[in-house]
Amino acid sequence: MINKAKFDALSPQLQEALLSSAKEAGDYQRKLVAEDQQKIIDGMKEAGVEVLTDIDRKAFSDALGSQVRDMFLKDNPQGADLLKAVDEVQ
To answer: What GO terms are given for molecular function (predicted)?
Structure first.
């Protein structure tokens, strides 16, 4: 993490190195997460859990969406703006 003033004070070469390294680290982290998720799913299947991959997202959201949102807002009153942004993206 670096603030804008510190970043702007770096030479263009260092800025590029920092941005490039951050992208590389982010790509690597996403790869590790995907691998871990697959291991978890495989373990669940081996334990006899039925894993659904083709779901009707709208039906799922309609069934649970308001309950999850209410719980989220109860714990995070400032989260209304975040939920609004999510809705706008969908």
So the answer is: carbohydrate binding
For 3, the token pair is 């603030």
Closest to 69 (Cα-Cα) out of 88, 90, 77: 77
On whether the CB atoms of residues 15 and 6 are closer than 8 A, the answer is no
Q: Along the chain (90 residues), what's the average pLDDT of each consecutive run of 10 residues?
A: 93 96 96 93 94 77 81 86 83
Question: What residues contact residue 72 under an 8 Å CB cut-off, 6+ apart?
Answer: 79, 83
Say what the pTM is.
0.48
3-state secondary structure of 69: helix
Question: In this structure, are residues 88 and 77 in contact, taking their beta carbons and an 8 Å threshold?
Answer: no
Domain locations in the chain as residue ranges: 1-50, 55-90
